[in-house]
Amino acid sequence: MNPIERALGILLLLTGGKIVPATVLAERFQVSLRTIYRDIDRLIALGVPVDAERGAEGGYRLAQGYLQPPVALTRNETAALLAAMALVRSSRTVPLADDLASAEKKLLATLPRNLHGLLKEADRIVGIEPIPPDIFHSGTKAEPTEDWQRALDGFMSGILDGKRVRFDHFNPVRDTVKSHDVEPFGVMFDRDLWYLAGRCVDSNLLKVYRADRVRDLEISGLFFRPDKEFSIQSLLGGAWLSQAMRRWEQEEQIAEILITARQAKKLSADWYYRHAVFTPAGDGKILISIPSTERARILPLVRWLGPGAELQGPDNLRQELAVELRELAELYGTEAP
Fold this sequence. Notes:
Order of helices and strands: HHHEEHHHHEEEEEHEHEEHEH
CATH class of the largest domain: Mainly Beta
Oligomer: single chain
Number of strands: 11
Number of domains: 4
Largest sheet: 5 strands, antiparallel
Low-confidence stretches: none
């Protein structure tokens, strides 16, 4: 038996999940312990995750989950999965993108040859309309980058390995970068963006981070026990944004706009502003409080709301808007035709 045949035999013996002592392997293949050690080193060099246990009862075994049992899929089941992959790819950035491509190739390999040509070019038969840009909320637009992909892949790997992740998070409002140590819980996709949800170790709070704003993510060597009570479903429907806004209210300056009941009803249907605070202000008016004083966010909102909306503060934005409105009045004239 040559070394390659012996390495394959060792690999098959280790697939059972139990620890196999080196002495058992040596007896099985009629070689020395030193030869077994070299064979194990060869497997590790090839990327096979062999775990070694030291001690009298030690030995070797394959890392859990390395080899999965075969799954028999029908033609239609395979086609359905390929269509689902096309839908996922339409988001431009997906977690573990390289692994997704590898899985797609394996799925295609299970099909009869006469179907390869049809499904290998799934883009010809499955069309996904991209999500249009949200002009009103321009800050939600982001182009895919290598950092974004690495953040998604690393966060997902942290979830699968049960290990903490460390990364820097860029805050465009404050123009600052802050380091975070996080126990990764889940990921979610919302309006063409990926978000990372996990427990911030420093604050002990569940936080949600935009993946495109994460930099230099790395998996730490610290394991954590996943929260079995957590479900990413609990953050859907805008729940994560509502929680974040309550936190931002304690951290950011507040902009206040006095609006009509009709305008409040209109805003309450918006995916973002419906999570702001709406307070009755008398005379049928509503005061909306937004935890942001970004010029690019607040002024376009007041313009969009139109007559009936009054920016109460901050003063600098109110003054800037007043100058703009005077210039518009001069441009269009105030005299009746």
